[in-house]
């Protein structure tokens, strides 16, 4: 579904992504792992149109999508999750979901709902869709809660829910598990698997929690120093000596940094 060919993203003289090439197969839940600073988030930002690449190419279903802005990618079904924006935290969970289709087409709610005649019907359809999404994610009880009051994990679920308000094909998740308790992490994992199996979503998931990666992802791609270091099943990756070395390497560097600090 997605191919990345010899992608570079430099910040001044620093090569955050340094010639990365990879494929995300249709229907897969592909894991992307690697030590801190490996360039994973930068790679996501380039694929999702948030940062232009220095060079290289990204395609989706064979079509060149390099450097397309996020809203165009959104229309093609390529989504990445974002943290719930500050200005939405005083809105309810249901309202946050109802915002998604309008906000992503660049229309304000005002235009979308009140500029035309079909106000009520549109609003009802959006609310129904939002409730369906909340039901799928098993968080119906939070529909009327303010988004700002949700726990970290519940916010992650809501982020995932936002991808379900439109017809997503491929979803990029950056550290969905960070700071999330086990129970909610399992709920998030289950939702990802169900979206993959029942709705045909393709996923690319960055995560440091190897249990989570091992349970969900095949294949797993390992990045280090801006390049793809290895790819394989989670079990193979965890035995791969180059991979172990890459992690230990940064472990050592971190240790040295901590000691000199
Ligand atoms: N806007 C920027 N300007 C300068 N350097 C940047 C910028 N964004 C990222 N970097 C650097 O690029 C490198 C890769 O960062 P990136 O966030 O992509 O890593 P990562 O693999 O996502 O790491 P982590 O696991 O810690 O999230 C880091 O050294 C980072 O400091
Ligand atoms: Mg990152």
From TrEMBL:
Molecular function via GO: ATP binding; ATP hydrolysis activity
Signal peptide range in chain numbering: none
Record domain ABC transporter: where: 2-250
Transmembrane annotation, as ranges: none
Ligase is among the record's keywords: no
Keywords annotated in UniProt: ATP-binding, Nucleotide-binding, Transport
Alphabetized InterPro entries for the sequence: AAA+_ATPase, ABC_AA/LPS_Transport, ABC_transporter-like_ATP-bd, ABC_transporter-like_CS, BCA_ABC_TP_C, P-loop_NTPase
GO cellular component, one term: plasma membrane
Phosphoprotein recorded as keyword: no
Protein name in UniProt: Amino acid/amide ABC transporter ATP-binding protein 1, HAAT family
Species of the source: Limimaricola pyoseonensis
């Amino acid at each position: 579904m997605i191919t990345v060919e010899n992608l570079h993203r430099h910040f001044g003289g620093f090569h955050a992504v340094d010639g990365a090439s990879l494929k995300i197969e249709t229907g897969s839940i592909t894991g992307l792992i690697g030590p801190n600073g490996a360039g994973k988030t930068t790679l996501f930002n380039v694929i999702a149109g948030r940062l232009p690449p220095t060079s290289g190419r990204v395609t989706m279903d064979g079509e060149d999508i390099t450097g397309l802005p996020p809203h165009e990618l959104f229309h093609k079904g390529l989504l990445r999750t974002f943290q719930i924006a500050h200005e939405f935290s005083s809105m309810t969970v249901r309202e946050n979901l109802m915002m998604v289709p309008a906000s992503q087409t660049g229309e304000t709610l005002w235009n979308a709902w009140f500029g035309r005649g079909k106000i009520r019907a549109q609003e009802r359809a959006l609310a129904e869709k939002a409730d369906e999404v909340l039901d799928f994610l098993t968080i119906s009880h939070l529909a009327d809660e303010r988004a700002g009051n949700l726990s970290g994990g519940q916010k992650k679920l809501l982020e995932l829910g936002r991808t379900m308000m439109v017809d997503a094909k491929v979803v990029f998740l950056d550290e969905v598990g960070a700071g999330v308790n086990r129970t909610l992490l399992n709920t998030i994992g289950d939702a990802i698997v169900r979206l993959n199996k029942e709705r045909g979503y393709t996923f690319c998931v960055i995560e440091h929690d190897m249990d989570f990666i091992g349970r969900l992802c095949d294949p797993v791609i390992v990045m280090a120093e801006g390049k793809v270091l290895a790819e394989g099943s989670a079990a193979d990756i965890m035995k791969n000596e180059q991979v172990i070395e890459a992690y230990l390497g940064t472990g050592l560097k971190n240790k040295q940094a901590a000691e000199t600090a």
